Amino acid sequence: MNIASLAPLAVVLPILGAALTFLLIRHSRAQRAVSIGLLSLTLALECLLLASAWNSGTAAVTIGGWLPPWGIVMVVDQFSSLMLVVSSAVSLAVLVYATGQGMADGDEDAPVSIFHPTYLILVAGVSNAFLSGDLFNLYVGFEILLTASYVLMTLGGTGPRIRAGVTYVVVSVVSSVLFLIAIAMVFGATGTVNMADLALKLGDLDQGTRTLLHVMLLVAFGIKAAVFPLSFWLPDSYPTAPAPVTAVFAGLLTKVGVYAMVRTETLLFPGDTLNTPLMVVALLTMVVGILGALAQSDIKRLLSFTLVSHIGYMVFGLAMSSVAGLAAAVFYVAHHITIQTSLFLVTGLIERRGGSSSVDRLGGLAKLSPLLALLFFIPGMNLAGIPPFSGFLGKVGLLQAGIELGTPLAYALVIGGVVTSLLTLLAIARVWNRAFWRKPEDAEHPDPVLLAGPSGRAAGPGAKINTVTLLPRTMVGSTLGLVVLGVALTVFAGPLFGLSDQAARDMLDRAPYIQSVLGSDTAVPATVTGGGR
Hints:
Elements: H1 9-23, H2 28-56, E1 59-62, E2 73-76, H3 78-105, H4 115-131, H5 135-153, H6 159-190, H7 195-201, H8 207-225, H9 234-237, H10 243-267, H11 275-294, H12 299-319, H13 323-354, H14 365-368, H15 370-384, H16 390-405, H17 408-437, H18 448-452, H19 473-491, H20 493-509, H21 511-518
Antiparallel strand pairs: 1-2
Helix pairs in contact: 1-2, 1-4, 2-3, 3-4, 3-10, 3-13, 3-19, 4-5, 5-6, 5-10, 6-8, 7-21, 8-10, 10-12, 10-13, 11-12, 11-17, 12-13, 12-17, 13-15, 13-16, 13-19, 13-20, 15-17, 15-19, 16-17
């Protein structure tokens, strides 16, 4: 049996889990067991899909027996299968973290009990977007995950969450409407929305129509990916959500937008017609994002701005239209999903242990909780690109590709990438020095737990004993697992770069994707490009 034929189960299993957990809404233990079990099964299936794509190349699955370009097609290649595995591994870690948090806080009843079915629907939407072989099904995947994200963002119904949710909904609706209009225009111009079929037909359109469709899709995906200047909504939306929700949003949702940009740029609009604007956007995204991070005192807002900033690295790799640049971008996407999610989970632990996520109110956490300090330090250095971590390797790959391209704008991006990396290190070092290294009494209005120290006894004569908030083992364990996964990306960087390189070659070649969907005898036109392939 062809393993790739099981690809629809990557979407079906989470939906089935959502239905079961909704039926078990009054039975929290069974609900947790079903959600974790089915997501683990989904991850195992996706590992098989990745192995199949790695060994056998790209494969397409038609749904319901309807042949392309009329039916729904799911395509499994190296890039989509890698994204599936990384996203599900991260989603599973966050789910375990959220389960531990719920058990520790005693959140047994609605509305928190709807977290599990909604979360699994989110995972199904992400998987559907990664596997989609046509634009409309990609739109459906976006809408599934966005609908679930609306619910997750407003869990608890607090004022700040509702306000942030309204902003998030409005921006997402605008993006979705633009995407839907673009799909309608594409269908009107070509008579199809199948991406393999579009790869053949878009080249026959006049340049003005093709450029208009190109820009429409880029703007829609740019909002979802939070590239500058379309990233204004993210720093105000993500930090207000519960820690697990913020973590999965930061790790996955913007990367689905990046994935859509990579897929459409390489398959539908090959060449370098809009590479110069993309490079400018990448540079501005990197620099503006990290400057915003340096101005923050709240760790969650700081990480939200670094999230925006590092999207710029991925767009940089895409805009170079070269195997080296795209391979480095693929590697960096996998790296950033893992590391950014880890840091948001650690921030949730910091807030729980220290009573705040503001560095102005924190101090002495390294002494209070050495394990927590280690859990922050490793992914923090990885995000900053300190050798030998995967963040350093990914950035070196991007910088080398920029130098190979050799244009003035490419050199500007190389310089911008180095400066952004250094400023990221500065931002992470500020958090470390203030939250972990300095004495608690030097903080502004420190929490009594910080002043009490590890023993829970406040200093000074006649001081009271404070209750120290211990971190639940489940939350710490899931965070530790994700940090270890980030380290594994460094240990296995060679094979991962090999996979990324092959994924980049196949995407830029286009023939493996198009012929897997439309048949091996389909003639694929040569790609005209300004160089670098």
